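The instructor's notes for this session suggest beginning with a concrete chain rather than abstract definitions. Hand out the sequence below and ask the class to guess, before any prediction is shown, which regions might be ordered.
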Amino acid sequence: MQITAAVLLALQQGFNAAFLQGLGSVKSTLDLVAMRVPSTADTENYGWMKELPGMREWVGQRQINNLEASAAQLKNKTYEHTIGVKRENIEDDKLGIYTPMLSMQGEVVARHPDELVWGLLPTGFATKGFDGQYFFDTDHVGYTAAGAETSYSNTGGGAGAPWFLMDLSRAFMKPLIFQERKKAEFVSLTRPDSEYVFMNKEFLYGADARYVAGFGFHQLAYGSKATLDATAFAAARLAMETQRRPDGSVIGVTATHLVCGPSRRAEAEAVLMKEYLASGESNTNYKAVNLVVDPRLG
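After discussion, reveal the predicted structure:
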């Protein structure tokens, strides 16, 4: 096959179609646990905002609740995936292997944001959130019913595979953040007179994107590496649902999802999916929350 501008254009269009086919084959799940935040700059600033006091009877003047914030940033990262097509393979019309490769490339690119978000969760035991503490830690700032400052723990310790209890009921607040600067875009280098093609006898087809995953609201998540049983589940649920604001009012967190990897599936199902216990008693945790099992969590 003679390499002409028309041939290269047809290849680019065909490879782009194959890429888009793979890209569209993936159903993203990151929105379950992460807020999508559009980005317009290299770095976005997130102020750690303290919980607002609850509503009060309006007596006298309004009481102004100033949001206190500490510097917190998420810097976008650039990702790429590139496939090289040898000039000889175009000349010899050996292009059959490339179409499925480009579809696979599209699938890889589409799965990457989910891999970043879900892969971030297990790192929360040793990665700091916006409040300067590890995201899953024993001494976050919390408050008593009297409004006194106290330590709040959203971790159960342990050393096994992690599991997480979360409140995923809000569309505008999630435990994690997916900050997107630029969606994945299919690009190519196919000019025969380009230096790279001249030196390497190879045309390039790839994708690039800019985004980053980060930690959001630790109040909405509890992480543990301890044994997952009814006692541990109850302790996690109690810790989450009794959090209070600085004025002593209840935040209103309600556990909605138990999240784990395949290695914890049996334990999680024993807690949530059995209607009756071994003793014959009703299981009070039966379907208490939704179960999510993600293979990226171990």
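Then share the key points. The mean pLDDT is 91. The chain has one domain: 5-50+69-297.
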